Amino acid sequence: MEIVAAIGAARHAVRTRRPLIHELTGSVTANDCANITLALGASPVMAQALPEVGEVTKKSSALLINLGMLQPTMLASLHRAARVAVQEGIPLVLDPVGVGTTAWRTQAAIALVKAYKFTIIKGNGSEIQCLAREESGVYGGVDSLRKVLPARDVQHMAVKLGTTVAVTGAIDMVSDGKQTYMLQNGCSMLTRITGTGCMTGALAAAYSAVTTPLTAAVAAITTMSLAGEKARKQAAQAGPGSLHAALFDVVYRLTAEDLRRDGKIRSVSL
């Protein structure tokens, strides 16, 4: 199945199956992640307490680990949930928010990647590079790197990390080490809204419950980017607050045909 048809099928599958997605994320974006998951058609649950995190993961169709508000007390829960996901064959998505800013955060993320087989790792170029290079101090914040990474570099990082990587930026890239796609939808005002990257991670987890990792990653980024375009038109001359609200409406209404017709997805030959 071609990728455009596959992401359309995945959109339909999420809406009809309503998979339960366990999302371990921070307080800054938890509400947005839950709402974008609901808008897509999946069901979010957010249980971080160590005594129950493994049990909830076992009942879920996918697990998202988001490091945005990482705390030492949270690490044990992240490891327990990841361990259960791997044991049960549940898709496991990592959003390494802020990796590279400090040695502690970077080493915590590297430890997770080394210990567990992640289905998808989604982040900006700096975050993914830090994981692949196993180093910190490369950049200063979650929005610092806006340049476009070469497709070959993205492919190499996917091979190095042994997973599908979804790299967001001015032009988004997805690669599983064998196939690489350049995704060119988007709206610059999305950078004015906190949490769009985290929401994209939640979308990736929801899609991973119903399709392959490569398709899930492409579908997640295309959904958010295309929704940004459509929401910007809907919000007319309004600012980021109106765009934020419109995003959920657009994702809720977004159809498989919208993704197939309007998704700007290009296969990259390397």
Automatic annotation (TrEMBL):
The entry's substrate-binding residues are 46, 195
Reaction catalyzed: 5-(2-hydroxyethyl)-4-methylthiazole + ATP = 4-methyl-5-(2-phosphooxyethyl)-thiazole + ADP + H(+)
Does the UniProt entry include the keyword ATP-binding? Answer: yes
- What Gene3D superfamilies does this protein's entry cite? 3.40.1190.20
Q: In which residues is ATP bound?
A: 122, 168
What's the protein here called? Answer: Hydroxyethylthiazole kinase
The record's family statement is: Belongs to the Thz kinase family.
